[in-house]
């Protein structure tokens, strides 16, 4: 029999990685909770009618579809089968698909539970999603998303709170060197007016979003190819290249947007958002108005956020913004505006790993392994074990009679930091040997002393 | 557009239920951790070659299969399509399936990572599984399993530790009235010798496992129909009907098994397991040797466990036992014996709900909502909010200017227990009104006093 394998693009998370992921999820979840966000979980499977058409044509291609149960081919049109028309047949043999993101299921939940929900509704959701993408480094077919959204209010206090939440998450994770970029859809729309983009806004936004990566020259070339006038681009890049404080940037924009109502709205929203930070006793540290920032522009209608960890080779680790009409795709007539943030768990994990920022404790399993030499010391060790656990100390005993070396190897492999060594002498005296496996330090202590030493 | 629906047999978990489920998972996870078990997560999708043939024919039918991506029909044999042979076509158009339980992925993980794993390997896993079963009350197509296993040792200390772990979980959940039934495959095999079951062991075990539910008469009828002799059944029921302490039951079995080597082995294993409890400073409270207990007999080869919550209409809430050859199904020649326990999360949830045992705190979201009357008090409230959060108090502010009544309704609906009311008077004096929404009690306090009052 062949050795089993994992489906490509999927991963097992073994104990060490899991402990770290749990630390990550717990840290983020606790911050969400402190800000009044409550957890939601939706099923892995959704009806394809819920998912299809929400992610564009490309997204639809990447949905994992679940074969109907039972005799699923029974009623399928024979001509479609004979034509081997995969697309048409799929719609008849698969009614369900796997969750592709957390936003659509969230919208579906809101529509289905509209009457029980208190608005503004603040939910967070940490669950895996599945995409039939071509797997490559850092891109998986199963990966976790971690979203927090508040819907049902236009208040920019929510934007300010999301800024604070992001700052607190990264500070709690000790990722202190990060930049939270913020922009506004209406600022982009104001820029579009300045360059007379009329009808070519999407091209403009896609192009300038790359400014950071490919530089002015290439962006300019691309825009000229798309039919933008060189002269209007000069005005554009003067704005895009503005350096300085957030206040300076916003003042420049105000100045440039004197003729643009939409541009003014963007600037005033950003000013109001940053103003709320002050009322919330927070400052603008880490926060940077980034005029070329566009992100999923077709989606966002207000503020746009993106987080970069500095001095690490890594794309954005978090992003979000305000959107209108969360539930419109489900035929709801109510205009539910919301603002949300999504943390890229895999990338944040990699940053913490690279910068060696996972707390040491996270890596450990039990605190102590009870080792023994014979039947009598094993029995004595069981009593020791029960006392350790009564004191709340995660601990274990090697369950078989085995050589001491083997027992210590087990502790090493599991990264258990301490062993208690019990032999005939220890049984007789009650003075147990406690050994720190990292430092090699060893001393004789009573179980009460050991408990005191190991209690955090 | 039609209102969206959930696939049948699946559920959303809204904030209240999620908070309770997290309490449940955290409680169980903490106990697992204290006993040296480490978390593992495997992907939702497994290759069908990993899953098929592991759950019997019926299980194979219940696997959710995932349609291959792209032009999946391209190379399918036309004759199979024309014959509309769902089964044969499925094997060509679906390579992957959804996880059906946690044991097979665990075994697959062990085989794939055998060389990095420290034996004995103690893992726990809390993840959803999917079964294309007909949904009915209490039976879902997506549900969580919660398993802990230790593999790679025959030591009965592991059985004793699992008994302790079960006791601690239920005690932590304040489900104090439960019975942990324990039996042994070899005890059943000993009984089979007594009734000369030769070849009909499975019939015997299935029948006596129902003794509790349908009574002696019906079990006897069934066994006679299967060809068992009435006389030998008298001897059997004399044993099965034994009442008394565990010691009395085991002594009776010892007596009856004088001619049965296998029976003796079962009794001695049970005695040894209970003996380890003593060494571990634990007693046999809640633990009951249950001679007719059989459970998935084809699977278990040693001790068998089952937990019933008493005085609640509910099947078993937890079960497990020792098995041999975890990895045999994957062609591994190494005999890896293990022992595990699985907690039925949905049933335990229902028990806690019925008995009103969820901690009140679990149900709440934020601790306090900051309410305001006008722009100035909203701004003041943002400062208040930041102080509450700095003190670690989960709190929120109503983000829009709205009538006080609406703000309190929001708090009510979200089960936020306290509101802080800030109007012009409070802004002037710094004496804020703190109101307990449950008791109606209200008093004026400074923010420092409020923080002190709300800090747990």
Descriptive tags:
homodimer, 456 residues, alpha+beta, 8-stranded mixed sheet, 5-stranded mixed sheet, 43% helix, 18% strand
Q: What is this structure, in a nutshell?
A:
2 copies of one chain form a homodimer. The first copy, chain A, is of the alpha+beta class.
How would you describe what is shown here?
- Two copies of one chain form a homodimer.
- Chain A is an alpha+beta fold and 456 residues long.
- Among the domains of chain A are: 133 residues, 2-Layer Sandwich (BirA Bifunctional Protein, domain 2), CATH 3.30.930.10; 91 residues, Rossmann fold (3-Layer(aba) Sandwich), CATH 3.40.50.800.
- Chain A contains 19 helices and 16 strands.
- In chain A, strands 1-5-6-11-10-9-7-8 form an eight-stranded mixed sheet. In chain A, strands 13-12-14-15-16 form a five-stranded mixed sheet, sandwiched between helices. A three-stranded antiparallel sheet of chain A has the order 2-4-3.
- The radius of gyration of chain A is 28 Å and the shape is globular.
- Chain A starts with 14 loop residues before the first helix and ends with a helix.
- The mean pLDDT of chain A is 94.
- The interface between A and B is large, with 111 and 111 residues.
